[in-house]
Amino acid sequence: MASVAVTGLSKRYGDFVAVDDISFEVQPGEVFALLGPNGAGKTTTVEILEGFRKRDAGEVAVLGFDPANMATSLQLRERMGIVLQELAVEPLLTVREVLRRNAGYFCNPRSVDELIELVGLTEKAGARVKNLSGGQQRRLDLALGIVGNPELIFLDEPTTGFDPSARRGAWDLVESLAGEGTTVILTTHYMDEAEALADRVSVIAEGRIVASGTPQSLGGRDLGDAKIRFRIAPGHDDAELHFDNMSRVGELVEIVTDHEVETLHQLTGWSIDNGIALIGLVVERLTLEDIYLQLTGYSNEGLAERPSPSALTKEVP
Known about the structure:
Helix content is 28%, strand content 26%. It has helices spanning 42-50, 73-77, 95-103, 112-118, 134-146, 164-179, 191-197, 260-274, 288-295, and strands at residues 4-13, 16-26, 31-35, 57-62, 80-83, 152-156, 183-187, 200-205, 208-213, 226-232, 246-249, 252-257, 278-284. It is built from 9 helices and 13 strands. The chain has 2 domains: 4-79 and 151-219 and 291-311, 3-Layer(aba) Sandwich (Rossmann fold), CATH 3.40.50; 225-284. A 6-stranded mixed β-sheet has the order 5-6-7-3-8-9, sandwiched between helices. By secondary structure, the chain is α/β, with parallel strands linked by helices.
């Protein structure tokens, strides 16, 4: 059984359609990234899955439960963890006190001391929440999200405010959770984060899912043209090179091809036969960010202004 199954999900705010008949599944132990610009319907979708917002149409099952059903809400929340964008705990409590208090809400919580070490807050275990830096508060957020040893965890922009070292630590934590069989639903604006962590991604724009797949194949990025770029060693030129779609900008030579292996074979053969070095030789395809921007209709003027569901009051069933 899928950890999350969504079929025909829709949500409106007056005349505004925030989520428009979307469907997807998330399998047990999978890291699933839901990507989309502000106002695209991403936050509304996640909040419906978490049980914080009611849907207008469609079917939703989270760990086999309907998140809108109050009768089974407690059973679902005991098996689910949530990491929100902002910390919402008492500022005068210490890190250890917060985690011990929240651990008491669950039947099978993680060890508080092990959890503090896992998220890199050992030196701050006795510090009050109000004295933590922004990055340390996000680490505490992560700890609170997994203190109940959940089967499914929602991570909403989990590394916002992290320095590079802390980001990598958070990535390691997510990979560790997935390795233990925890299902992860991730929202992020960092495309490198989605590419590093997600098994599958779906992109939502204007309330609809416009593409789904692995980060490597999304939007056909694994099948598109490749760009081969290099510079010719000083004292030589590319007069003997004859490739279709070859161009030169200053010292940089670029070849666009959908047969990069054959092209590279010919190119490097020419380089070796003539003893002419190809400086800075690289092969590039469209990045995940390139594909994301194409799918979400990015332009120099930006996306049209749209109401943000997150700015609306949450509906707690």
